[in-house]
């Protein structure tokens, strides 16, 4: 699992091939932890849309989400990647910094207002996952 891991580099590919199914775009992320993530954008999500490997994560999102993810990567620095299976929830996300409540220290991006009061928010799930896995806040 990858929780709130800073994206240090990304690359984008737009392609067509006879071995990729209906995947036509991919974004590869290098993460501060040394792990990598590949986000494949596809017409219909497969049942195994989130996969964890030794030091890599594979996340499938729908094709219409490509523009949003790419825009976030281009305009938010730093940006973060979270992929986790915790408390029965599976989450894959590219997001901005949630501020000092997640990692401690100084907020470097736009925090989502009021997220700490919503137990169903991505922010709250990340906080619970960090606590459950014994990670620093």
What secondary-structure arrangement, pairings included, does this model have?
Elements: E1 2-14, E2 25-31, E3 36-42, E4 50-52, E5 56-62, H1 66-75, E6 80-86, E7 89-95, H2 100-103, H3 122-132
Parallel strand pairs: 3-5
Antiparallel strand pairs: 1-2, 1-6, 2-3, 4-5, 6-7
Q: Got a strand count?
A: 7
**Whole-angstrom Rg:** 15 Å
As laid out across the biggest beta sheet, the strand order is 4-5-3-2-1-6-7
Distance between the amino and carboxyl termini: 16 Å
The overall pLDDT average reads 82
The percent range for strand residues is 35-45%
Shape: globular
Number of domains: 1
| Helix content range | 10-25%
Low-confidence segments, given as residue ranges, are 102-115
Distinct helical segment count: 3
Helix-strand topology string: EEEEEHEEHH
The largest sheet is: 7 strands, mixed
Structural class estimated from helices and strands: alpha+beta
Protein model, in words:
This protein is an alpha+beta fold and about 140 residues long. The chain has one domain (about 1-130). It contains three helices and seven strands, in the order βββββαββαα. It has helices at about 65-75, 100-105, 120-130, and strands at about 1-15, 25-30, 35-40, 50, 55-60, 80-85, 90-95. A seven-stranded mixed sheet has the order 4-5-3-2-1-6-7. A hairpin with a 3-residue loop joins β4 and β5. The chain is globular and about 45 Å long. The protein starts with a strand and ends in a 5-residue tail after the last helix. The relative contact order is 0.18.
């Amino acid at each position: 699992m990858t929780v709130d891991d800073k994206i240090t580099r990304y690359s984008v590919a737009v392609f067509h091939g006879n071995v990729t199914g209906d995947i036509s775009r991919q974004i590869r992320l290098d993460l501060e932890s040394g792990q990598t993530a590949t986000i494949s954008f596809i017409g219909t999500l497969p049942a195994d849309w989130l996969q964890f490997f030794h030091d890599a994560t594979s996340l499938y999102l729908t094709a219409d989400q490509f523009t949003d993810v790419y825009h976030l990567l281009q305009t938010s620095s730093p940006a973060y990647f979270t992929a986790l299976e915790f408390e029965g929830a599976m989450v894959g996300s590219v997001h901005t910094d949630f501020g000092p409540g997640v990692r401690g220290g100084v907020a470097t991006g736009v925090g989502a207002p009021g997220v700490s009061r919503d137990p169903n928010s991505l922010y709250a799930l990340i906080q619970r996952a960090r606590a459950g896995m014994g990670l620093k806040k």
